[in-house]
Amino acid sequence: xxxxxxxxxxxxxxxxxxxxxxxxxxxxxxxxxxxxxxxxxxxxxxxxxxxxxxxxxxxxxxxxxxxxxxxxxxxxxxxxxxxxxxxxxxxxxxxxxxxxxxxxxxxxxxxxxxxxxxxxxxxxxxxxxxxxxxxxxxxxxxxxxxxxxxxxxxxxxxxxxxxxxxxxxxxxxxxxxxxxxxxxxxxxxxxxxxxxxxxxxxxxxxxxxxxxxxxxxxxxxxxxxx
Length: 226
Prior knowledge:
Elements: H1 2-16, E1 20-23, E2 27-31, E3 36-45, E4 49-61, E5 63-77, E6 81-88, E7 91-103, E8 106-118, E9 121-133, E10 136-138, E11 152-159, E12 162-173, E13 176-187, E14 190-207, E15 216-223
Parallel strand pairs: 2-3, 3-4, 4-5, 5-6, 5-7, 6-7, 7-8, 8-9, 9-10, 9-11, 10-12, 11-12, 12-13, 13-14
Antiparallel strand pairs: 1-2, 14-15
């Protein structure tokens, strides 16, 4: 109830285009569409926002610059760059996420450094850290094969259904692991790697750079050479 009243007030302030600050002009506790602010900031919908330092609460968040601290959005979090903790109920998407990135539905990000958690989908071009998704982890498609995911994961990737990646340096755990180049360990029901330097554990395991007769193996497959 309190949150609803605050958001209604934020909407009214935003509609009047007169942000309110308890403190300084650019710092303190602010309500409205401040383009730059430090402290605690409430807003209905971000427009042409530059830099936020502290706690940013919005229905739809969308800073063009950087948010340093905590960014929470009731629906969509579209801050371009976030250094800290970010959450978007429907989606959390932007260019760079450094820290903890979460969403109850989907995470879309070009570069993610830290921990990423979503209940359904994660689309990331480059991940450094730990990535957990309830259904699917993948990246943009491209190249000769339109069904090959063009992304790189350095660390650990865990998904309920599938992990699809161009390159993984580390560990992938999913029902289906489809990796072009894997250096490390994959665990799943079906593991498929065109080029592997490491170990696969699952019911069905395919290693494209193994000799004929050793490409498809049950339970365990590996390639430890170059």
